[in-house]
C-alpha cells in the first residue's frame, strides 16, 4: 500500500530531481490546479503505456489538509481546554470509582482518553442538536468511549452525581448508567448501540441512506441532518465495518462521516504491527469512493515537515510500521531523536533546533484541536460533493493517562490508576483537586454558573441543544386500517391454493395502497423478491434509487417491469442481509430517530436471518426497533430442494432468545393477518417496544376460513359465531387455539398440535388414525411456542413471588384446561420448541420436528426423513398411546410395517 520508493533504488537521481523540480515549479508559478491537471494528463499517458504506478490511492503519511489551508479556530481555546480537562478527569473517575468500590465492574479508560478531542471539537462546533433544523445530527459514539460522553452530560447538568456513581450499576432501574450506548436501558439518552464492533459503522451507513430515503420520498426533510460515526481502528477488522462502504459512495451519502480513531491499537496489541493501518484504511476508503482526510500530526510537526524539502522525512514516515510508532509513544526524546530521526542526517538536521523534551512533545494529529477542527470543517465544505468522508485520526491509546497507560499493549484492559498516576494526571490536567482527596478520585464539577459550564452550554444552545438525546415516543399518530381491511384474509379460499408467503405479499401490497398509512410501509428485500413472488411491487411502487432510473429497463412495456425511482418505496438491498438488517433497524427506529414512524417489513430467507445477522437483530432490539421480520422459505422440509445451507428448521428457536421479539409460525392466511394487524396496533398505537418474527412458507394450500366467520359457518354447516371468532383471534395471538375438534370420540382420543405447513400433515394423520386405528383427535393450531412459553414463565414467576395472592394461570394452561392427553406436537421446526412447553402440558407430550442438518429431496421424502409426515406422525401417536398403556406394542409394530416406514432408517439427528 505504501507509496514509498526507497532512494537507494533510484538509478538516476539527477533525472528524478529534474522531474520533481518541474512539478514544483508548476506548483509555485501556476498553482496547484494547473499542477493537478498536468499530473492527470501524465497519468493518462502512463495508463496508455501500462506504466501507471500502483497504490496511487494512498497519500503520504502526513495531514491531508496543508497548514496553509487550516481555518482559524473560532472557539475560546483556553476555555475549551479547561472543559476538556474536566471531562477527561471525570471520565477516568467514573471508571476508577466504580472499580474501586465494586471490583470487576469494568469499564474503559483508554479509548475515550485517545478520542476526547474528537468529541469535544464536535460538541463545541459541529454536532447539531435535536432542536436544529431537520432534527439534528445523528451520532454513533464509539461504545468504549461512553464514560466521556456521560462526563460531558454531568458537566452540562443533565446527569446528577448519583448517576455518575452508578456507572455500570443499573439494577436499580432509572438510576444507573449503562456500560455502553444502550437505548434499551437509557431510552431518552442513547440512540444507537455501537459496542458490538462493526454494528455501529454499518448502521450509520444505512441510517444516512434512510435519511435520504425519507427525503426523496417526501416524508421528511432530512437534508440538514448529518450522520457522524466514531469507530476504532481495530473495529475496522470487522467485515460489517468496511463491507458496505461502497453503498455509501454509490448513494452519494455526503451526509455521512466516519471518524476512525487510529490509535494503532486494539485490545491485545497493535492493529497492524507490521503495517500501517491508516494507510491501509485510506486505500480502502478511497477505493470505495470516499473522501479521506488524514489527521496524522499535531501542529508541532508543521515546522519540521516544512523543512523536509527533499521529502526524506515523508518517505521515512511512510515506511515506519505501526508497531514501531507505538514503541516511540513513550520513548524519551533522546531515543526518538536517535532511533527515528537518526536514520538520516538530513532528518536529524530538521530537529536539531528542538530539545529532547520538545521532541517528546511532538503530538499526533488526533490530539490537536486545531487539526481536528480543520478536518471537521472540511467535511462541512465537502457537503454537496456527493461523497461520504472518512477522517482518519492518528492518536495515542490512553493519551494523557500517564506512562502506565499511553500506548502500552495492556492499556485497553486497565480499569484503575495507581496513586501516583492519579496525582500525575491531576497535575497534567491542572485541576483543583486536593492531594488528600485524590485517592478517592472524586468527581469534579466547577458549578453550573462557572464560566466553563456556561461556555459549553452556550455552544450547545447555538448548535440546537444537548446530546445525546433520544425521543422515546411516537410524535405523529399512525392511522391503522380497521377490521374490514383484513376480512378478505379471514374468509379463506373455496378454490385454488396459496402459500403464506403469497398471502403476505398480497397483504403487504394492500397495506402499501392504504391511503392513510401506506406511505409509511417500508418493504425491504435482499435480492429475493422473485423467490417470494413479490416482484410485482417493483412496478407498483418502485424500487428506491437515489438516481432514479438512468436506463430503459429490459422489461419496460411489460406489466411487471423493473422500475427504479427516486421516490420508490421498496428497498431492494442486493445480496446483503447485513445491509438489509441495517436498513430494517433504521426504518424500525425512525419513529424515535426522525420522529416519523415507519413500518418496515423485511422479508428474507429464514436461514439467513438469526444465524447470519443475529447480532444485528440483537442490536435492533437494543434500539427499540418496531417492525416485522419475515422469515420466508421457512421450514426444514417445506423449502425442499435447496439442501442443508438453506433449509431452516431452527430460527424460531433462535428467536426465542430475543425476548423483545414476538415470534410466530402461522399455518393459515387468517392467522397471518391477525398477527400482523395486532402487531401494528401494539407497536404503533400502544407503543410497545417489541418487534415481530413471522415464518412464511412457500407451500401452496387451500386456505381455510377463520373459525367463527361466515364462510366457516357455511363450510361446516354451523352458525356464525362472533364469540368463536374472537376466541380464535385471541388464541392465534396467545399461541394456541382449537382448530378442529373431533366430531365423535373413538376408542382412543388424542390431542394433536400442528404449525405451519405441517398442520396439513397433522390433519392427514388425524384422518388416517380415525380411519384405520380407531383413534380420534382434536387438532390445535399452535402459532407460537415462544409466546406461550414466555407467558407461562411470567405467570410462574409472579406466582412464586406472590404466594398468597390468587395464582395467575398461564394461557397454555387456560387453553388446555380440562383437556385430556396425550398430546402429540409436530412442526417444521425443531422438537425443542414444543419441548419447551412440557411443564405446562397436562399430560404426556410427544414432540416431532426437524433436528438435524437435513438434505435436499422432495417435501414428501424430507418429511419422511424427519418423521413429520402423515405416516410417521400416525406411528408417533400410536406409540404415545402404547406408552400410556392403551395400545399394544404389536399394534405399533404392525403400523410401522403397514405404513411402509423403515424402522432402521437413518436417524435425522445424525445427518
Ligand atoms: C463484535 C465484538 N467483538 C469483540 C469485542 C471486544 N472488544 C471490545 S473493544 C475491543 C478492541 C477495540 O479496539 P479499537 O476498535 O481499536 O478501539 P480503541 O482502540 O479506540 O479502544 C474488542 C476486541 C466487541 N466489543 N465486539
Ligand atoms: Mg484502536
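Sequence proposed for the structure above (911 residues):
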Amino acid at each position: 500500500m505504501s507509496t514509498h520508493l526507497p532512494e537507494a533504488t533510484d538509478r538516476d537521481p539527477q533525472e528524478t530531481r529534474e522531474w520533481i523540480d518541474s512539478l514544483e515549479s508548476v506548483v509555485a508559478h501556476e498553482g496547484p490546479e494547473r499542477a493537478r491537471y498536468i499530473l492527470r494528463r501524465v497519468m493518462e499517458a502512463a495508463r496508455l503505456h501500462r506504466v501507471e504506478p500502483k497504490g496511487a490511492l494512498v497519500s503520504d503519511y502526513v495531514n491531508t489538509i496543508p497548514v496553509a489551508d487550516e481555518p482559524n479556530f473560532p472557539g475560546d481555546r483556553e476555555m475549551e481546554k479547561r472543559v476538556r480537562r474536566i471531562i477527561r478527569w471525570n471520565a477516568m473517575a467514573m471508571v476508577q470509582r466504580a472499580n474501586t468500590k465494586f471490583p470487576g465492574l469494568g469499564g474503559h479508560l483508554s479509548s475515550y482518553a485517545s478520542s476526547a478531542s474528537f468529541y469535544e471539537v464536535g460538541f463545541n462546533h459541529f454536532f447539531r442538536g435535536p432542536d436544529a433544523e431537520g432534527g439534528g445530527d445523528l451520532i454513533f459514539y464509539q461504545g468504549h468511549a461512553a464514560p466521556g460522553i456521560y462526563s460531558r452530560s454531568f458537566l452540562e447538568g443533565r446527569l446528577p452525581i448519583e448517576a455518575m456513581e452508578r456507572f455500570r450499576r443499573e439494577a436499580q432501574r432509572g438510576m444507573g448508567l449503562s456500560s455502553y450506548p444502550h437505548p434499551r436501558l437509557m431510552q431518552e439518552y442513547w440512540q444507537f448501540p455501537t459496542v458490538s464492533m462493526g454494528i455501529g459503522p454499518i448502521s450509520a451507513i444505512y441510517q444516512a441512506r434512510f435519511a435520504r430515503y425519507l427525503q426523496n420520498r417526501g416524508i421528511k426533510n432530512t437534508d440538514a441532518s448529518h450522520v457522524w460515526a466514531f469507530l476504532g481502528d481495530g473495529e475496522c477488522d470487522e467485515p460489517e465495518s468496511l463491507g458496505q462502504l461502497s453503498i455509501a459512495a454509490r448513494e452519494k451519502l455526503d451526509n455521512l462521516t466516519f471518524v476512525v480513531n487510529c490509535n494503532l491499537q486494539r485490545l491485545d496489541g497493535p492493529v497492524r504491527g507490521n503495517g500501517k493501518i491508516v494507510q491501509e484504511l485510506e486505500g480502502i476508503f478511497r477505493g470505495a469512493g470516499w473522501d479521506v482526510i488524514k489527521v496524522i500530526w499535531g501542529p508541532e510537526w508543521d515546522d519540521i515537515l516544512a523543512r523536509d524539502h527533499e521529502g526524506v522525512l515523508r518517505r521515512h514516515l511512510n515506511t515506519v510500521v505501526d508497531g514501531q510508532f507505538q514503541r516511540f509513544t513513550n520513548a524519551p526524546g533522546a531515543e526518538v531523536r536517535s532511533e527515528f530521526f537518526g536514520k538520516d542526517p538530513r532528518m536529524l538536521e530538521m530537529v536539531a533546533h528542538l530539545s529532547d523534551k520538545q521532541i517528546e512533545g511532538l503530538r499526533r494529529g488526533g490530539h490537536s484541536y486545531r487539526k481536528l477542527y480543520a478536518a471537521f470543517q472540511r467535511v462541512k465544505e465537502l457537503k454537496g460533493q456527493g461523497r461520504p468522508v472518512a477522517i482518519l485520526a492518528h492518536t495515542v491509546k490512553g493519551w494523557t493517562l500517564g506512562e502506565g497507560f499511553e500506548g502500552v499493549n495492556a492499556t485497553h484492559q486497565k480499569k484503575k490508576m495507581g496513586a501516583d498516576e492519579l496525582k500525575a494526571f491531576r497535575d497534567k490536567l491542572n485541576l483543583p483537586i486536593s492531594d488528600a482527596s485524590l485517592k478517592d478520585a472524586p468527581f469534579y464539577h466547577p458549578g453550573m454558573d462557572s464560566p466553563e459550564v456556561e461556555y459549553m452550554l452556550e455552544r450547545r444552545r447555538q448548535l440546537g441543544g444537548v446530546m445525546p438525546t433520544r425521543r422515546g415516543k411516537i410524535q405523529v399518530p399512525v392511522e391503522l386500517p380497521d377490521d374490514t381491511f383484513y376480512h378478505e384474509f379471514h374468509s379463506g379460499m373455496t378454490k385454488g391454493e396459496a402459500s403464506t408467503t403469497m398471502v403476505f405479499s398480497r397483504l403487504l401490497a394492500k397495506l402499501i395502497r392504504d391511503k392513510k398509512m401506506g406511505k409509511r410501509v417500508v418493504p425491504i428485500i435482499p435480492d429475493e423478491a422473485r423467490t417470494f413472488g413479490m416482484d410485482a411491487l417493483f412496478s407498483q411502487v418502485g424500487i428506491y434509487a437515489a438516481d432514479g432510473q438512468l436506463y430503459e429497463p429490459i422489461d419496460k412495456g411489460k406489466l411487471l417491469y423493473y422500475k427504479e425511482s427516486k421516490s420508490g418505496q421498496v428497498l431492494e438491498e442486493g445480496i446483503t442481509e447485513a445491509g438489509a438488517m441495517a436498513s430494517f433497524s433504521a426504518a424500525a427506529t425512525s419513529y424515535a430517530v426522525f420522529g416519523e414512524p415507519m413500518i418496515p417489513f423485511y422479508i428474507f430467507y429464514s436461514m439467513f436471518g438469526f444465524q447470519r445477522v443475529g447480532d444485528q437483530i440483537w442490536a435492533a432490539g437494543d434500539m427499540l426497533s418496531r417492525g416485522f421480520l419475515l422469515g420466508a422459505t421457512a421450514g426444514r422440509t417445506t423449502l425442499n430442494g435447496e439442501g442443508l445451507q438453506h433449509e431452516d428448521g431452527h430460527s424460531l428457536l433462535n428467536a426465542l432468545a430475543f425476548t423483545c421479539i414476538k415470534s410466530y409460525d402461522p399455518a393459515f392466511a387468517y392467522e397471518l393477518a391477525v398477527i400482523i394487524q395486532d402487531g401494528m396496533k401494539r407497536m404503533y398505537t400502544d407503543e410497545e417496544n417489541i418487534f415481530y418474527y413471522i415464518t412464511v412458507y412457500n407451500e401452496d394450500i387451500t386456505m381455510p376460513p377463520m373459525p367463527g366467520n361466515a364462510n366457516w359457518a357455511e363450510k361446516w354447516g354451523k352458525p356464525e359465531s362472533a364469540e368463536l371468532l374472537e376466541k380464535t383471534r385471541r388464541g392465534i395471538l396467545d399461541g394456541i387455539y382449537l382448530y378442529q375438534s373431533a366430531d365423535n370420540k373413538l376408542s382412543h382420543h388424542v390431542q394433536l398440535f400442528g404449525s405451519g405447513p405441517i398442520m396439513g400433515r397433522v390433519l392427514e394423520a388425524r384422518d388416517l388414525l380415525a380411519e384405520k386405528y380407531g383413534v380420534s383427535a382434536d387438532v390445535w393450531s399452535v402459532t407460537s411456542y415462544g409466546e406461550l412459553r414466555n407467558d407461562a414463565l411470567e405467570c410462574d414467576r409472579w406466582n412464586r413471588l406472590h404466594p398468597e395472592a390468587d395464582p395467575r394461570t398461564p394461557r397454555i394452561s387456560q387453553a388446555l384446561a380440562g383437556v385430556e392427553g396425550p398430546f402429540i406436537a409436530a412442526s417444521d421446526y425443531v422438537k425443542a420448541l414444543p419441548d419447551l412447553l412440557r411443564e405446562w402440558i397436562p399430560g404426556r407430550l410427544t414432540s416431532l420436528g426437524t433436528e438435524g442438518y437435513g438434505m435436499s429431496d422432495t417435501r414428501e421424502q424430507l418429511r419422511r426423513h424427519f418423521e413429520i409426515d402423515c405416516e410417521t406422525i400416525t406411528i408417533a401417536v400410536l406409540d404415545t398411546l402404547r406408552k400410556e398403556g392403551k395400545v399394544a406394542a404389536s399394534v405399533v409394530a404392525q403400523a410401522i410395517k403397514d405404513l411402509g416406514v423403515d424402522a432402521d432408517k437413518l436417524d435425522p439427528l445424525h445427518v
